[in-house]
């Protein structure tokens, strides 16, 4: 099994996804263990002094003015975990919990938090044992980090609360730790706070969304090309010299992808051969590279923000190399929250333009010779009429999800935490938006491949034919009389979501952007 080594200098998106989704094992480097020990020595020295230090010998948040005596400090650290593990609602997905646990371990291992090496090792052991704390949907305001979600994870390290075992069964965490031979941690000064104070949940969800969206943007370029082909449109608008004079990188990449898919097509270029020739294709077809390209550039910006956050040590207070322990505001989730919201906007617009192309394929007045709703016997058959309803419902929800969470703020902690990021909420709605986008693209794929097969006497591009062949092999039905449609649409969604569409096309075109 793949092993991810955690050092002091951050990690990579690939490592996060390997741990979150691929169950990769986690190992602390000697460098990280040394850094942990050095930082802990500084915290221990401060704990022995009479002067109050936030998180070491004081209360938290609005209660930071109280000095905590040494005999109460272990109780203080236990109490912050127990009291902050206050989430409610449905369980958060296993991959999200694993991502936030791993990212918290990454920050702990940086040597800026003052956590003992043994605590960090226990965090790695829990991940490696396949034990996943039960984390709930609601509880994070995205400031002071993802407090409630991380608290539920810290509770598991203490052997308290519930967790999911490697067999998928939810049981008391203490039982699961015992079966795995893991000793529950007894937290000392600053450690409870250090386990809770980070942007790890929202960052983990951002990284997974970026990976999913990269695949979906490539998939959308493919389905846009298939629709252009099915509508007998022109590929001339994809010429590189047209995109060179508006040099947005994403636009050029999307146009290049579409052109690669359409290479050798016998369907394109017929737009001026009708009784009422088209001078231009509709915007949803002609402007596909501009819209998808803008989204690609948004992905690039979000990836840059994610890379900076991955290189960060988010905690409060932090242990600095010169031995100072200083309070700060680096836990504020604004940088991550903004790009999570930005991605939801881009995803909604990509879904919107894909739905417009699908509707055009189904409308006999705009489809340039295709049967109404791509039906076998229109009137007797309804064809894909209601598939477009489903797509429209998905897009409508995506538009609602595009309303930014980060524009909101609700003061908390007796006005000490009087401005929050809502980054966790931005991440949660983005996950729904990404799921919906996959379904929207799948429905365009379903309609476009059927439409191409209804263009009798004309031969599609080799890449298009490869996509159709792979789709049919995956159980996605082609033209014919009405049938139970939901299984076909589910198969199309799985085909897009798995990357099989991209793989089928790239077998002909070579790598796409």
TrEMBL record:
The covalently linked position for 5-imidazolinone (Ala-Gly), per the record, is 143-145
Quickly give the catalysed reaction.
Answer: L-histidine = trans-urocanate + NH4(+)
Q: Does the keyword Cytoplasm apply?
A: yes
The chain residues annotated with the modification 2,3-didehydroalanine (Ser) are: 144
GO biological process: what's one of them? Answer: L-histidine catabolic process to glutamate and formate
Q: What class of enzyme is it?
A: lyase
Where would you say this protein principally sits, based on its record? cytoplasm
What are the protein's UniProt keywords? Cytoplasm, Histidine metabolism, Lyase
Task: Name the pathway it acts in.
Answer: Amino-acid degradation; L-histidine degradation into L-glutamate; N-formimidoyl-L-glutamate from L-histidine: step 1/3
- Compartment(s) where it occurs, according to its Swiss-Prot or TrEMBL record: Cytoplasm
Q: Which Pfam families match?
A: Lyase_aromatic
E.C. numbers: 4.3.1.3
Q: Which GO terms describe its molecular function?
A: histidine ammonia-lyase activity; phenylalanine ammonia-lyase activity
Give the free-text PTM comment from the record: Contains an active site 4-methylidene-imidazol-5-one (MIO), which is formed autocatalytically by cyclization and dehydration of residues Cys-Ser-Gly.
Please give the InterPro entries that the UniProt record associates with this protein.
Answer: Aromatic_Lyase (IPR001106), Fumarase/histidase_N (IPR024083), HutH (IPR005921), L-Aspartase-like (IPR008948), Phe/His_NH3-lyase_AS (IPR022313)
State a GO cellular component annotated for this protein. Answer: cytoplasm
Question: Is Lyase one of the keywords?
Answer: yes
Name the family. Belongs to the PAL/histidase family.
The protein's matches in PANTHER family, at most eight in alphabetical order, are given as:
HISTIDINE AMMONIA-LYASE
Under what name is this protein listed?
Histidine ammonia-lyase
**Organism name:** Streptomyces globosus
